[in-house]
Structure formats: structure tokens, C-alpha cells
Amino acid sequence: MSGAAHDRTTAPADDTARARWEEEIAAVPGAAAPRHNRSGIEVRPLYTPDDWDASAYDADLGYPGQPPFTRGIYPSMHRGRRWTQRQLIGLGTPADYNARLRTLLDAGATAISLIPCNSVYRGVDADTVDPLLLGTCGTVINTPQDFADALDGIPIERLSIGLNDPLPFTLLAQLLVEARRRGVPWRDLRGTSNQSDYLSHYVANHMFFRLALPGSRRVLSDAIDFLGREVPHWNPLSVVGQHMQQAGATPAQAMAFTLCTALQVAGDCIARGMDPDAFLPRFTFFYDISISFFEEIAKFRAGRRLWAKLARERLGARDPRSWRFKFHAQTSGVDLTRQQPLNNIARVTAQAIAGLFGGLQSLHTDAYDEVLSTPTEHAARIAIATQNILCEEAGLGDVIDPLGGSFYVESLTDRMEAEIEAVIAEIDAAGGMYAAVEQGLVQRMIGESAMAFQARVESGAQTIVGVNAYLAPDDPGERAPLERPDPERMAAHLERLGRYKAERSGTAVRDADDALARAADDPGANLFAAVVDATAAGLTQGEIVARLRERLGFGQPQAMV
Amino acid sequence: MRRGAVDLEAALGGDRRALARALTAVENETTEGLGLLAALDGRLGRARVIGLTGPPGAGKSTLVGACLGELLARDLRVAVVAVDPSSPYSGGAILGDRLRMERHAADARVFIRSLAARGHLGGLSRSTAWVVDLLDAAAFDVVLVETVGTGQSETEIVDLAQVRAVLCAPGLGDDVQALKSGILEIADLVVVNKADLPGAAETRNQLEAALAIGGRRPPVLATSATRGDGIAGLVDACLAAETAGGRARDPDRRLRHVIARLAGEQARRRLQDDDATGVAGLCAAVRRGELGLDAAARQALATLTD
Amino acid sequence: MNAPAHADVPIKVLVTKVGLDGHDRGSRLVANALRDAGMEVVYTGPWQSIPAVVKLATEEDVDLIGISSLATDHLIVPQLMEALREAGLGDVPVIVGGIVPDADERTLREAGVARVYHPGSALAEIVADVTELCTTPARGVAS
């Protein structure tokens, strides 16, 4: 790509006009002083045709739906089909979730998502956890029965389903069991396993980390293989940049780490004899959208262009569908402030616009009260309305890649691409993403970036409205009331879980448990297939994770300080 | 600062909080803390003190964690002393070793104490020996000491521990060279950890070759702390007779080291603070070029004969 | 960053996470800042149980306990306070940082938590508070 476009030395059309402008801006205090974005790239006061080589249009940009996909991965983008509004929800019991889900679908959500309780992420059943912590951040789903309750009356074959489901994909196994119970063929299921990226969990979100690195690596390859054959419209991999950026990675680092992770997982699959074009079209990515507006737009455009190149050149993919960089994005909760919380609606709006201009396929807008508590229904509704307003009233879906050709955005896209490539080279030198994570390199890089950003905030170099500037007395009235699961309904649910466990066939459960252990011990067995069988036999997610941890190790992530 | 009074009898009698407070007093070398040491007389030397050293990345903490499980399975009471480096800039420290020992840290038969090196070189903090003494007197069967792990200068563990295990792992590159030219000499046991990783055999060969040159044959053991392989064998070796390293051990050696340290501290205080020792005259003689430093030190010691 | 509070004996602090959440950006930043201020920081992984924190604080004889909570894990902090008191550690100040709604903050303060920090709290403020809580005699919240 034209990473060197900004260095061009060709003379501008009108030297005197430029010289006059340079003189005039130099006279304005601070206006010409250097500024930098979060990825460390200098942001100059003005961009002109000098900064972008328009003659490289066909090679660097091209047309939407055509390589290198800089302008978008589909020919019609948001004009043909609006982006997917995927709000992550989950609270309380499966029945609570079911009621909330129906409200959101009525409000215009076009896809469903499921966030389980933190105890599920940890791989333990609800009956082993302090009841105070149950269902406060997600829904308590431990068994196929819980899953059926949660999605009761919801047409699973007609909606795109996002599951926040770390390896070994126990929620997905429950969905497959539920589909079989309803007579829905697995090929009719569409959706994504949103938390399949164990490397990002190991690095930046330990809560989702369930099995030691080698075990995680194996289960993911097994699942990609199984799902490719059995559930062909399911996306088994969502490479997550969000955790790492929230943990402090710069946007350029986050993009580089995800591309390296995708290369790593693809490489693992290719190593076991799989054809890259058989699975790459089902790879997806998931990012944080920070409030650094243009930087985020450039991050997505550069990432799209780079992935097309990497998929083709490094992975040998020949099918253009394998080169398409499909991504879901979520507005960044880290940028939201507790002070003057309604200001967060403005922040989320700016972040969402950046994501839309960046060409996302699916968007989650944060509720403004996310920094105060688990989002309330009221705030979640505003978050969805924000998307509707941007689409229907502001018309942001009308033109594809509307900032394409902007001197600044094109120049920044080139610079971000060069920065991302530099980080990729560092990871390559460490032996790839798996090795770099094992050695702690990625964790160190993120930690340093987090400290640097915090120092900018504390020194006042980075203004945050209401936090280190423009302070105003807090208005408690701006805070939505707290929502917590109803203790009585949760107690009733725990009783239902107890009955489920008691009424299962002891023999069937023991046999399935033994079969799961045998599959774990046999490197040739498909472990995800074994998880589906165990779920069908009635094992809870806690029992499955415990057995696999025993056989494959847990391997607590290193805390890199 | 909440530094409560120390109740030594409670500390040695199984009161965890009293023991922790006593350890703080000793660690900080307060008068009260140093005063406790005399009271330990006659209660020392019962615990098996095992030192674990080796370069960063060899997996020391994880191995200690794995050994904890094995020692508990043998129904032994175990104390762990884990030393981390202090920042030379701020003096602060992150004490993160317990993180990898969490599986057994909750067991009531385990007591883990983290220490910052506080600028002391040699792999331990200045007061580690006294911390170990207190734990010995508190009737722990085993005291495991994990050094800072910065490399070849960590030889203080020689005088502290009865069994010195030097740890290495494949993939550490130059650190193996550093081991060969340094702390390998003190090893009663050499452990190749992460033995499930590629390169383990090569690391073992390198270490055995280096030991052969030195003419010593301490056992070389292979472990995988994360998988639990080889841990029982390592614990067996650590608990075996005094002659673990093929050399006879003087059971008083560590005690003598502590006394020498204490004597040195006392001598230094008296020579620095007391005008009556005649050190001023020695200084003058050195300045005139009539006396070397070593000779001056010898004469200074001789003035302390009262 | 502030200078060390004591040139001779560093303040010793425990920074940990109880409950279920695993986000550690906050606890890492705070641990680093306290280290840079000259303190000795015992740092643990997430998911500590209450008995584990009590045992750890006892054995390490820390001057202060810092709990980081991103999700709703702070809800069990009152139980931790009770357990600390039962173990005779009622004089050890406890601070909590994270996403803590107002109503919960009141509950925590009533349970004896010395300070509650929110997103946007400056590290310098936390360092100054910890120094003060650890150096002011009888500053603990024990009854």
C-alpha cells in the first residue's frame, strides 16, 4: 500500500498560498504544535493533496466488495442492508432474560445476543457461587433446560444469534441441543461464538479464560472443524480486539494483535490439514471503538486492507470471501465517565459514528450508565435509539465509505497501516501470537500503553470532560435507578437447577462424563463434538469445564504487572 | 503504621497473626524484632530449609506451588518465603510470587510470606535468614525459600538452606550460560523444569556437561510444574539425608552464618559509633599512607575484645 | 508520583480481586502506582475467595487492603469486612475501586470500607490516600 504517500516530495500546486497559510497558522498560539493520536501517530493541522496519492486509488482503495476492500467488504454496504444492531444483554434468571429479549426485539433489535452470568464465564455452576453475585452482569445459564427457558418462544432459526461463549463453547452446545429438541436443522442456525479468542482472554480478560493455553488451542481447532461440517452458517471464531484495547492497547496495537491471532488460529487449522478457504469465510473480528474518532475510522479501513493481503499472501486463501474482514464493534466503555453520566450519550454517539464510517457489519452501542452499574433497561433503550437516529435521521447508511478520499483519512489510514504492520513484525519476531502471549510480550506492550495513557490523563495532556476539565457538580438525578436480579426469582431458579441435577439419569451422566474424559485424553478425538454429546446427556457447563480442566489443565493466566 | 506489639509465645504457638507480626518486626529489623532472635535459642534447626534459585522464567514460583501440593500430601507443615526485587528508583516492589502458589495457599498447613529484597544483593533480603529462623522456630516442618531469581550472584542461599536446588528450563538461552559459570556450583540438586517443552533434553545435557567439568555430580531432575511431573521425586530428593549434594553438611553452618552476621552488625555499629575504640587513630594512619585498609580492619576488630 | 512515605520501612499493601470478574487493568495500574510511590505491593490474581484474602492479609501482615471490582463483585465486600474483623484484622483499612453504584457505595462505607474509588479517580489521589491511611495512627475502621 502507499504507506509512503505522506512523504511525497512533489511540489504543491500553489506554493505561495501554502506558505501564507503556514505563516498564518504559526501565528496562532498552539495551533501548529505537534499533536498525537493514541497510536502515537502525529496529527497535523491540515492535510492536502500532498498527503494522499490519488493515483493509487485502484490499488489502495478500489471499489466496495472488491479487494483490497478498503472501502468496504460488500458492494452495497449499509445502503443495501443496514448494519446489525446487536445489543448484548443478560441479567438475572433465564426467564428474566426471555422477558428482556422480547422487549428488545419489539424495540427493533434485529439480532439476539446472550451474555451469561460471570459465574458461567468462570465455568462454575450457580449452586457453587455466592447468590449475591448471581445474574448481576449476565444470565445464569448452566444447563440445556436453562437455555431452553431463556430462548422460549424465540425463533432461533430466523435470527442471528451472538453467544458470549468462551471455549469449550458450552452455550453453543446447549443451542445445538435445543435446536435438535425443536427439530430445527443445525444448518439453519446463524450466528457467532463471540468469546472464542482464548489468546485475548489470556492476555486481557482472565474471566473468560477457562482452559490452559494448549487445551484452548486444541478445542478451538476442533470446534472450527466440527462446525464447518455440521453447522455451516455458524461463525466459530470472533477474534477479539476489544479486551486488549480496553486493557490499554492502542488502536494500532489492538488491530495488529487481532490480525496476528487470526493468522495463528488459521495456521493451526491449516497445520491439521484444513483448507483455508473452508474456514476463513467464517472468521469474524470484534473491536472496541474508542472516542479517538478519525483514528478509529483509519484503524478499521487499514485493518480491512491488511487482512485481505495477509489472508491471500500468508495463508494462501484463494476465495475472495476468505479475504473479507467482517467485524462487530462495540463503543468503548472505558471512555465513558461516571461524572455527569448523561454526557456518555454524546460519547457513544461519536464512537458509533466512527464505527459506521469505519464500515462495521454489526454494532453494539453502550448504555450511558455502564460505568455506574449493569445497564438498566431505560439506558439500553436509548442506546438502541442512538443507532436508529444515526441510520434513519442522520442518513449515515446512505453513502458507502463517505470519508474515502479525504486527504486526512486516507493519509491516516496509510500511517495506521504502517504502524499496525510494525507491531505485527514484532509479534512475528517473537514466533507468532501464541508464542508472544506465552512469553508475556503482548501483556507487556499493553501494560506500557495503559500506563502511558493514564499518565496523559493525570497530567491533563488528555482532556476528559467532567473528569479533569469542565468539572461540574454531580447531579444524582442523572443516574438511573439500580437494577438487580430479584432474589426470590433467583432462589426459585436455584431450586429448579437443583431439581434438574437430581432428576437426571445418573448412568447417562456418568457415561457421558467418562466419554468426555476419554475424548480429552485422546488427541485424535474431536473435543467439541464430545462437549455437545455431554451436554445432550445432561451435563451442566460447570461439570464439563471442570472435567476438561482436570484433563487439560487450567493454567491461570500470568498477571503481568 | 499499624505495627502492633509482638507476642512471641503466641507466634511460635500457632497464632498466625502473631507470627505474621513477629515476622514483620524481624523483617524490619526493629529492636523488638531483633530482640526476638535471642529467644529463639534452642528452638532452631528442626525445619528442613530448602532453597530454590534460578533465572527468571525458569518457573520457580510455579514449582514451589507444585511442591506445596506434594508436601501437604505427606502431611507436612510448610512455610514459604518468596523474595522479589525492589525497584532501585522508588524502593517499592510488586510481590507477585504467591500468585502461582494459589492452589494450596488456602491450606491451613501452609504459611506464605513475601519479602522485598530492599536493595540487598545476593538473591535474598537482608533479613531473610531471620525470617527463616522464626518460621523454623514456629515448628514448620519445611521452609521453602525462593530467591529473587536475577542470576548468578544469588549465592546467599548457600548459607541459609540445607538443600539448595538450582532451577533451569529450556528456552532460556544465555541464562544457561550464566548458570554454568555461577550458581550451579552451589547446587545440591539441579532441576530442569518445563521438561515437557522442546529443548529440555538439550538443556539437561548442557547442565550435566557443565557439572562434569566441575567434578561434581549433584542429581539432575526433570520436572513439569504445570503438569505435576517429577514433583514427587524432587520432594523426595529435598527431604533426603543431609548429604543431598554429595558433601557432608555441617548442621551448625547456617547458625554460624547468622551469628557471624549478627557479630558483624554489632561490630560495625560499635566501630562506627563509639569514639573509644581508637578507630580515629586508624583513619589517620590510613590517610598518612602508613596502614593498608585490611590491616586497619584487623586492628579495629582487635580493639573489640572486651 | 509521591515520595515514599517512610524512607526506612515501606508501606505494605495487598491489591486483589474477589468474586468472579477477571478484568485487571485497574488493579494493575493501582499496583504499579503504589510500587512507584515506594510501597511493597502483594499482588494476586482475580477470583480470590474471602477466606483466601483473610489468610493472605494475615500472613503478609499488610497495612492496607485494596479491592478492585469491575462487575458487581463489590457486593461481597461487606462479608469480607466481617471476616477480617473476626480474624482480628479489623484495624486494617480496606479500600475499593471499580464500578460501584451510589447505593452500593453507601453500603460499603457502612460496612467499614475506608474509601471507594470510581472510574476517573486519579492514581495520585489513591496513592495519597493510601499513604495517609497507613501512616495515621488508629485510622483503621475497627470497632
Give a brief description.
The complex is a heterotrimer of chains A (561), B (306) and C (143). Chain B is α/β, with parallel strands linked by helices and 306 residues long.
Rg of chain A, nearest Å: 24 Å
Say what oligomer this is.
heterotrimer
In helices, the fraction of residues of chain C equals 25-40%
> If you compute it from the alpha carbons, what radius of gyration of chain C comes out, rounded to the nearest whole angstrom?
14 Å
| Main beta-sheet strand count, sense and barrel state of chain A | 5 strands, parallel
Distance between the termini of chain C: 33 Å
- Average pLDDT of chain A: 90
Order of strands across the biggest sheet of chain A? 3-11-10-9-8
Largest sheet of chain C: 5 strands, parallel
Which two chains touch over the largest interface?
Answer: A-C, 44 and 34 residues
Using DSSP, what is the number of strands of chain A? Answer: 11
How much beta of chain C, percentage-wise?
Answer: 15-25%
Largest sheet strand order of chain C: 2-1-3-4-5
**Termini distance of chain A?**
37 Å
Number of contiguous helices of chain C:
5
What's the tally of helices of chain A? Answer: 23
Helix content estimate of chain A:
40-55%
Instruction: Output the structural class of chain C.
Output: alpha/beta
Q: Spans of chain A with pLDDT under 50 lasting ≥5 residues? A: 1-5
Task: Provide an overview of this structure.
The complex is a heterotrimer of chains A (561), B (306) and C (143). Chain A is built from 23 helices and eleven strands. With 561 residues, chain A is α/β, with parallel strands linked by helices. In chain A, strands 3-11-10-9-8 form a five-stranded parallel β-sheet. In chain A, strands 4-5-6-7 form a four-stranded parallel β-sheet. In chain A, α7 (170-182) crosses α22, α11 packs parallel to α13 and α21 runs antiparallel to α22 (527-536). The longest helix of chain A is centred in the C-terminal third of the chain and has 23 residues, at 407-429. Chain A starts with 14 loop residues before the first helix and ends in a 9-residue tail after the last helix. Mean pLDDT of chain A is 90; it is low at 1-5. Chain B contains 13 helices and eight strands. Chain B has a seven-stranded parallel β-sheet with strand order 4-2-5-1-6-7-8, sandwiched between helices. Helix content of chain B is 42%, strand content 13%. With 306 residues, chain B is α/β, with parallel strands linked by helices. Chain B is globular and about 65 Å long. The model of chain B is unreliable at 243-251 (pLDDT under 50). The longest helix of chain B is centred in the last third of the chain and has 21 residues, at 253-273. In chain B, α4 (60-73) packs across α10 and α12 packs antiparallel against α13. Chain C contains five helices and five strands, in the order βαβαβαβαβα. Chain C has 143 residues and is an alpha/beta fold. Chain C has a five-stranded parallel β-sheet, sandwiched between helices. In chain C, 67% of the residues are buried. Helix content of chain C is 38%, strand content 16%. Chains in contact: A-B, A-C, B-C. Chains B and C meet through α2, β3 and β4 of B and α1, β2 and α2 of C.
